[in-house]
């Protein structure tokens, strides 16, 4: 976004707020300072700061509640149902998310390991990121992220933090590797946990699990990455505007 001196003040204030969010000054789940304090911070009028805040609400970063001001919802607003940040959802719920990198592996085009993926992906070299997601140290999801190898050059475990807000795969793919996407599609289906999945999720082999497969696309409708998420428990969705946001799920499977 253009923030040169000639840019409108509301855009400058918007970018300033966004920079503070990304720097961790306003963590997920926290309340922003009052409008009066923000007016002084950015040297703008109340009308201007409200316009900036309204845009951040519309963009999905903030939530506005009558009498409570503005609360930070996420650093990675969902562009589609499956592109909402699990990390941010858990932080908002007062839980502690963490990640454990299991493997980073490269496969040639048409490798047997990627045969189940659609032809556009299967026919090119791919990198697989396999991560275990935990909540309050309890395994919740096993995530397979597939992306064209050219998008993830020299990917290594240090690129994927295991704690804190920057463990979000959406932010890692966007900020560290520069990936960009604007749409996604999602398939949800039941599955039975194989021995490997069961071992990581600490359940019996054959236990029913939910498989969420999400594929992200760029402006040219080319696939940027696809994720296969094997999760225990249940998940429901709130229908809000043009997107669905997954409700929070406690480790024992009780929905928030």
Element order: H for helix, E for strand: HHHEEHEHEEHEHEEEE
Query: Regions with pLDDT < 50 over 5+ consecutive residues?
Result: 239-256
Summing up helix and strand content along with how strands pair, one would put the structural category as alpha+beta
Number of domains: 2
Major sheet:
6 strands, antiparallel
Number of strands: 10
The second-level CATH architecture of the largest domain is 3-Layer(aba) Sandwich
Query: Any idea of the CATH topology of the largest domain?
Result: Chorismate lyase
Describe the strand arrangement of the main beta sheet, using strand numbers. Answer: 3-4-5-8-7-6
Helix content: 10-25%
**Tally of separate helices:** 7
Average predicted confidence as pLDDT: 85
Structure description:
A hairpin with a 2-residue loop joins strand 4 and strand 5 (138-148). The chain is globular. The strands form three sheets. It has a six-stranded antiparallel sheet. The protein has a two-stranded antiparallel sheet with strand order 1-2. The chain contains seven helices and ten strands. It folds into two domains: 9-72, Orthogonal Bundle (Arc Repressor Mutant, subunit A); 81-246, Chorismate lyase (3-Layer(aba) Sandwich), CATH 3.40.1410.10. It has 256 residues and is α+β, with helices and mostly antiparallel strands. Helix content is 24%, strand content 30%.
